[in-house]
Every structure is written in structure tokens, then in C-alpha cells.
Amino acid sequence: MKAYVFLLITAVLYAGNIIVGKAVNDIPPYTVAFFRVFIALLLLLPIGWRQAWRYRHTFRTEWKPLVALALTGVAFFNTFIYASLQFTSPINVSIMESSIPVVTILFSMLFLNEKLRGIQWLGVFLSVGGAIWVITGGSWQVIRDLAFNVGDVIMIGAVLTWVAYSILVKYHLAKFPAYGGLLVMFVIANIALFPIASIEWAVGGFPPIFESDHMLGLLFLGIFPSVVALVLWNKGVEAVGPSQASVFLNFLPVFTIIGSYLFLGEKITPVQVIGAFVVITGVLLTTRKKRKAVPILKEKELAQ
């Protein structure tokens, strides 16, 4: 149950990422991504540097999965989202992001030998369908008229990046200390994003990040979605696996609607209420565990 609470909080913080990201969308996307991870690095430095130094030999021997985790989950997932929004609509981005659970399940079945029961498959399709219902306003016309462009292709990269990160978490994250590992990942992410952000500054000039609204927005992005949410997500994935954890991403449109109502003054429609109910039902079905059988289980099964 604790893992599910962690994943729920993660969805709330990622919804905040969307809302606050909209407030600073006049800053170029890679610049937002760079300063987000730079602030997170500064936050983690006093917390994780001792662990990082203590596990330095592990980082050297396991550098390949460490770099892969840093590039997928820390550096480029949200960067792809920010970049895709420069070319495509939020509707396209949100619908494609809601496909993450299905794509994660397919990849997990291929690489992790995970299996889902029929009722869990029903939950997956309900949660995805509910997310699409919320985002499109219950209109088939919106879905039918969607047109793929450069932004949609970039968003496909975001989906695959997060799926790869979730699977890497299941395989490799336990090798690294919680805060020291994140600290090193943020260092890698800063190194990867800085050259790209520098190109944005060379082309369009250095953005006004020191304005109060921009600074507050970047601080929120650097602290809560970047550090707090990532720690909670990693713990959730370790506990329940990438397939079930990814279903909680379908709460994103629900929490985004609530946040938009509270902070942006937008109205909540009956279509959105119905969609929210369907999403929550789907998540509950997908995360429902199979009851244990009456016969005594084998020692190996008990150990799992």
C-alpha cells in the first residue's frame, strides 16, 4: 500500500510539473530542462555526496546502467516533452503519454517476463481509455482529426525513454545508494543537457530566468518533480514493478484538471468527472493482486 501512495504522490507532482511548466513555457525547453536538473543537483549535493563517495567504486564498475538511468529518467524524458510542445498540441502529448502503461507492459513482458491477468488487462485499457476521454473531452472527432507531426515523433521518443527508464530501474537501481546515486545521475544529466541549452542561448540569447515568476517556477520544477517525485517513483517501481507503476501516470490528466481548476480558474466538466472515475477504476483493477491459493506454496514461491 505504501508503494501505491508513493506513486499517487508522484502523479500529483508530475501534474504540478505540467501546470508550472506552462507558466514558464516562454523559456526554451532545453534551458528549462537544464536548470531543472541543475537546481536538483544543488539540492542533492549536501544530502548525497557522502554516499556518492562511499560507492564510487560501484559507480565505476556499473557506469553503463548508471549513465543509461541518468539519460533516460533524469535528462531526456521531460526534455522531450518540453521540446514536443513546441511543435504539437497538449492534446497529442497527453494522449501519447497515456500510452506509457501499455507500452511498458509490452516491454516488461518481453524483457522481465511479467504477466498480467485478464482483470488487470481490463484495468489497463480502462485507465488509458479514461485518460483519453478526459483529454479529448469525450469527443471522437478530436481523436479522429489528430495529425502526427515533428512534435508527435518527439513525444514517441519521450514514451520510449520513460519505458526504458522504468525497466532499467527494475534491473539496476538497487545497485546504487538512493541519494548518492541520484546525485551522480544529476551530474551526468547536467553534463548532457548543458551543451544543448548553450545552443539555445547562442541562438536566442540568454532567457530571463531570474525574473521572480520564472525563478519560482524553476525552483518548483527542480525540487518537487525532479527530486521528490523521482525518489518516490523509484521506490514504487522497485516495490510493484514497472508495469503496475506506470499505470499511475494515467492520473496525470485527472490531477492536471484539478490543479487547473484550483490555480488557473478553469471549469470542470461532467466529461472530465466521468473520465477521472474511469481512470481511478482502471488503476485499482490493474494494481489488484491475485489472491493466494489454499494449497501450501513451494519454498521458492514463498520467497518471491
UniProtKB/TrEMBL annotation:
SUPFAM superfamilies per UniProt: Multidrug resistance efflux transporter EmrE
Protein's cellular compartments: Cell membrane
Gene Ontology cellular component list: plasma membrane
Keywords: Cell membrane, Membrane, Transmembrane, Transmembrane helix
Domain EamA: 2-135, 151-287
Chief location bin: membrane
Membrane topology: Multi-pass membrane protein
Short name of one Pfam family: EamA
Domain of life: Bacteria
Membrane-crossing residue ranges in chain numbering: 27-45, 66-85, 91-112, 119-140, 146-168, 180-203, 215-233, 245-264, 270-287
Protein family: Belongs to the EamA transporter family.
PANTHER family referenced in this protein's UniProt entry, alphabetically: INNER MEMBRANE TRANSPORTER (PTHR32322), S-ADENOSYLMETHIONINE_S-ADENOSYLHOMOCYSTEINE TRANSPORTER (PTHR32322:SF18)
Protein name listed in UniProt: Permease of the drug/metabolite transporter (DMT) superfamily
The organism's taxonomic lineage, starting at the top: Bacteria, Bacillati, Bacillota, Bacilli, Bacillales
